[in-house]
Amino acid sequence: MAGVDRRTVLKGVGGAAALGVSAFAVTRFNTPDREQDPATCSAEDISATDKRLVFSNWPEYIDEDDGDYVSTLTQFEKDTGIKVRYTADVNDNNEFFAKVSNQLGSCSSSKRDLFALTDWMAARMIQVGWIQKLDATKVPNLHANIIDSLKSPDWDPKREYSAPWQSGLTGIAYNKAKVGEIKSFKELLTRKDLKGRISLLTEMRDTMAFLLLIDGADPASFTPDQWDTAVDLLRKARSDGQVRSFTGNEYVQDLASGNVVACEAWSGDIANAGDENLVWIPPEEGIIIWADNMLVPNLATHQANAERLIDYYYEPEVAAKLAAYNSFICPVKGAQEAMQDVDPEQVDNELIFPTEETLSKTHRFMALDEATMRTYEGDFADVTGA
């Protein structure tokens, strides 16, 4: 939607390739008793006789039926006969982890066949053996059409366990009916007219990346002293009353209602809000970029149905239709060309198809070992009250 983030952050190193290299280290949960062998913690797949699927995803992340408009999910159900119980119950990676960790850590069913989590959490779940391997023969569109920049992350180099749902950018949003133009993240933390009227994300890496950038540090390579300085800056903003709250996806409602007038925000959420007063901008300090991934958990009983859905969303026409709705970065080759028929006005939308110039301004967060990660999460929680 706290601790390490909804969004894995990647450093743009030139062109579309910037999206692909996840340089963060895969670390274990430091709970060896919870590790599983997915080969021995699996269930009989009843997809052939039970045309159902349970899918957990983030809010505001999929198109919906509207009048004559048939959503991608409804079309999938019509085409396949598979009924999807789609639930937007992923608001924050750690929050969702808490929902399923006892089950997955003990080789019990999570009652889900598919869920979407950010790269860092996807990697950790794969590493600890909680995710089933995909049958490559059942997801040919995934392997044929995934954009090169997302094809081979360090934590799943052959995309054997994961498939990106969408990618996107983290920046600033503000309500132009309530406040004047905002250009930088530093302004969020210092402008007197914003005091008590801003929110930041519960996602540690998103938020702390900006705090590091404000102080001139590189989120991809920083020292313990630079971390401490960034935490102190956040603590001061909190103690001064500058920050009203730390939130997951619910910030959109607060921004629209005027509970906050500016906030840290994910790009597509604001584009999706349907409120012309809400503006998303890339801060002067830089942009954070992330991806969320579809995963089949251990003991899923409808894996073949889930794989069929994954393959469906890697058809360029379907991907374009989804991207036209939610305005997140599309992971599918050919979708930009297909967008000509879906919504020509979106063909050059940078939130969906970012340019090399935009990608060159993106950043990632430094790889952390397990001990350091726990320390930094604790530092962040001490400030946010999580």
What key phrases describe this protein's structure?
386 residues; alpha/beta; 14 helices
Question: Can you characterise this structure?
Answer:
With 386 residues, the protein is α/β, with parallel strands linked by helices. 34% of the residues lie in helices and 15% in strands. It has 14 helices and ten strands. It has helices at 72-80, 93-105, 119-127, 140-145, 185-190, 204-214, 224-239, 251-257, 267-272, 303-313, 316-326, 335-342, 356-359, 370-384; strands at residues 52-56, 83-87, 114-118, 162-175, 198-201, 243-247, 262-266, 278-281, 287-295, 362-363. Strands 1, 2, 3, 4, 5, 6, 7, 8, 9 and 10 form a ten-stranded mixed β-sheet that branches. Helix 11 packs across helix 12 (335-342). It is globular and about 60 Å long. The model is unreliable at 1-31 (pLDDT under 50).
Oligomerization = single chain
Query: What's the alpha carbon Rg, rounded to whole Å?
Result: 20 Å
What is the CA-CA span between the terminal residues?
13 Å
Count of DSSP H/I helices = 14
Strand segment tally: 10
The helix/strand order is EHEHEHHEHEHHEHEHEEHHHHEH
Globally, the shape reads globular
Question: What's this, in brief?
Answer:
This protein has 14 helices and 10 strands. It is of the alpha/beta class. It is globular, with a radius of gyration of 20 Å.
Furnish the topology, listing elements before pairings.
Elements: E1 52-56, H1 72-80, E2 83-87, H2 93-105, E3 114-118, H3 119-127, H4 140-145, E4 162-175, H5 185-190, E5 198-201, H6 204-214, H7 224-239, E6 243-247, H8 251-257, E7 262-266, H9 267-272, E8 278-281, E9 287-295, H10 303-313, H11 316-326, H12 335-342, H13 356-359, E10 362-363, H14 370-384
Parallel strand pairs: 1-2, 1-3, 5-6, 5-7, 9-10
Antiparallel strand pairs: 3-9, 4-7, 4-8, 4-9
